Amino acid sequence: MPNRLAGATSPYLLQHADNPVDWWPWGPEAFEEARRRGVPVLLSVGYAACHWCHVMAHESFEDEAVAAYANEHFVAVKVDREERPDVDAVYMEAVQAATGQGGWPMTVFLTPGKDPFYFGTYFPPEPRHGMPAFRQVLEGVTAAWQERRDEVGEVAARIRDELAERASVYGAGSGALNPPGEADLHQALVALSRGFDQKRGGFGGAPKFPPSMVIEFLLRHHARTGSEAALQMAERTCEAMARGGIYDQLGGGFARYSVDAEWVVPHFEKMLYDNALLLRVFAHLWRATGSALAGRIARETADFLLRELRTAEGGFASALDADSIDPGTGKSVEGAYYAWTPEQLTGVLGERDGALAVELFEVTGTFEHGSSVLQLLGEPEDPADYQRIRARLFEARAQRPAPARDDKVVAAWNGLAIAALAETGALLDRPDLVEAAERAADLLLAVHLTADGRLLRTSRDGKAGENTGVLEDYADTAEGFLALYAVTGEAEWLDLAGGLLDTVLAHFTDPASGALYDTADDAEELIRRPQDPTDNATPSGWTAAANALLTYAAYTGSDRHRGAAERALGIVGALGSRAPRFIGWGLAAAEALVDGPREVAVVGPAADPATAVLRRTALLGTAPGAVVAVGEPGAVDVPLLADRPLLDGRPAAYVCRHFTCDAPTADPAVLAASLGAREE
After folding, report:
1. Which residue from 37, 57, 368, 473 has the highest number of Cβ atoms inside 10 Å of its Cβ?
2. pTM of the entire structure?
3. Does the CA dihedral 275-276-279-284 come out positive or negative?
């Protein structure tokens, strides 16, 4: 019999709707029930594409005896971390502080007042590798609750106080900090170089996550300073990821991370946010260097987004699962869709091409059952052979049972996708990508943006969810709209971005310090108001907002928005040289601030080919965070375009900083030189 999750819109919650555990969705009713019964709350947090979430569900949440015990002694609450990142952030901080590690599934035991007192992540069905069985955990927590309630209360109070103390680190003092200057950004580069894996690319050891935001900083730093070290780290990391198993060599797109330090064995789930961020990275690397590999990976990743993650309504789904059904065993296996044995390759391609594919894709038995994820460690000797083999394998793979798709649309991640697709479409001359970005933006306007200008975080099948947007939703959606304006010249996108950023200033910003909160001042009150400027898998809402505010100010000349960006970036000055890997997007935004950012106004008749040439030249510029506005002579709807006449009757480009401009030029070569654009 379905439980209370049956009416949810989240695919993750729906996965648990038939569990014998009597799950409640997060909400006041669940905690009121815990108070009424005098029992603690079992909070389980995960997401639809999470492999170990599936494992724990099958082992424990589908077990009738375990479920009966949990139902008797707890109120069980299930949360999709992607729908409620605020809930996830607050309790994950507690888990990490208490255990030194975190991850999903996250298992937390709370008082009816929402205070945590015991933590963990995955628990096995039987004691294993030093971990207690989940049933043992339930019994131990029950005994503590019933026999040592005062001790539980003391622990919960201490944890709440510690979380409040940790939160204050980013609060009142951040407004007194200066944004990073040139010396600070150089020190961040030096710190990154110490942790760089010169041989294999990336930073640190296993597991390795795609350092998208750090690469954006490195590319911007190289553009501003000419640093070859910065470019070399970016190029080496991008090539290693593109050639390794973390990249889908047949279908395009990147897996979540590599479990090893060599980028060989991926954790197979494919997330929208990773692929949106990496698409933009590879497009920017192509813009900076003309790398054929970077251009190919950008095109293939964009094609993957459109083919496999685009929804019927034009938005982009959150993720593809790591697991799928192995046709040989009928069981759900991580990576079954993507791995190949030599025999499988030969069966599809025949002896000659099969042997060639084994060598080409490094199929040497990575996994214990003899299969391998595909790699492409060098350029194929015969590109035509490679494309033919790749196409045949892709077609054959499409006959396998596909991974499940989490098809909810998350505003923030769609904002990242919109920015990446718009820029990639413009740079690589793919108008279909720009059109896809516009359609996704239209969906956010129609479904996620409310009449009072607020954002809803999720939708599914064109129907909005109930969860209010968090800071990253506003910041990343504004980022997407600003990128669309630069590419299309339609002023509506600039105006919409400004409205979202005004909401950020009104509801997410501490007026005294300029610090930013992850939730609005009128959002649900949790045990603390989450606030974190450091990047995780995506740019932090804090630094994403700072970058969008800075971009908007460059277009409009708004001192209010620029001042807010500068205050928000103060925290980057404090953290950039100490923990650059975890504040990469803040460092990238600071590069734009130090460089200006440069403001480029291109004026000329839309039908004049000379206008198009100047516009493309401007978009190819690598100056950090440069903004581009294009309009007819006499345009007044965008301040950057106001009072910009033609140059002797010809289309002209004006390059400015803080609305102080160089002499206008009609020469694309002069414009390219002023913006660091390479010759095509």
Report:
1. 473
2. 0.94
3. negative
